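Teaching soon. Invent one.


***
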Amino acid sequence: MQIGIFTVGDVTVDPTNGTAPTEHERIKAMVTIAKHAEDVGLDVFATGEHHNRPFVPSSPTTMLGYVAAQTSRIILSTSTTLITTNDPVKIAEDYAMLQHLADGRVDLILGRGNTAPVYPWFGKNPQDSVDLTVENYHLLRRLWDEDVVTWEGKHRTPLHNFTSTPRPLDGVPPFVWHGSIRTPQVAEIAAYYGDGYFANNIFWPKEHYQQLIKLYRERYAHYGHGTPEQAIVGLGGQFFIRPNSQDAVREFRPYFDNAPVYGHGPSLEDFTSQTPLTVGSPQELIDKTLTFREFFGDYQRQLFLVDHAGLPLKTVLEQLDLFGAEVLPTLRKEFAERTPATVPAPPTFENRKAAVSANA
């Protein structure tokens, strides 16, 4: 199991004191969080891609390249790379370059994005979002898998004898997870290529995501990649923990109530009962996280959102320290004991490179 964190990079007022970081402070804080994630032993740091306020991470590869130079072990990923509004040629080249700089410690989660106004900003029509997702990914795969590509589609100019540079490191492209919260076509394309499927199940009840993950697993087997249980699945989550559960609830409540995504909606108690959000003690987080496999089956990656809603950097770093000391060792032990040997290991550059060599 790969266990890590992701950030959406929101710039939000701290409801306890009325202050907000500047964009500069927030960007620097995200880098500090990424480095600290490695220090406490996490496996993955992922950043979102947003082009609208109140979010700042508009250039994930720039940030991850900067982080790569200051880390040595942690996998650097995205919690969304917009397959719809980004040119697949630029995605192919940017992430291959990042892969070289990070010595292979790179993968990405592709998604449609959930902000309709972004599409016209990049010359796209939101009504084409599913078509763009499918067409752009087919092209992206060819750009990574083939040295010379001649291609023609509906949504961009043709390519004639084009080579994307640099080529993927050692001939092994970055691993792709396809992120979705509502689109069956995304599960289908992930299954077709044998890629990972990341269900960022942080907002809706589990039953919704169970249907999507079940579809992905069935189609993964249909395309001959293995059994449904061998499909590569990732899940999202959120937490706020303190040694004492009541302290966690009292401290986090004002941040939850004013969060830009779910603030002024369901109560904290309702939200924690219906979604993966845990607000409580380390043991409560352990117990709840270990139930995820009961709902979704065995899976390979668990990412948590920890730095949103205006939480100060100091608090986020405290959360990571407490998680690394009190939660992470137990989760690793329990997942190792509960995961059958037939379930594939999480994808890494090293084990994928070894598989390519073995099949050569």
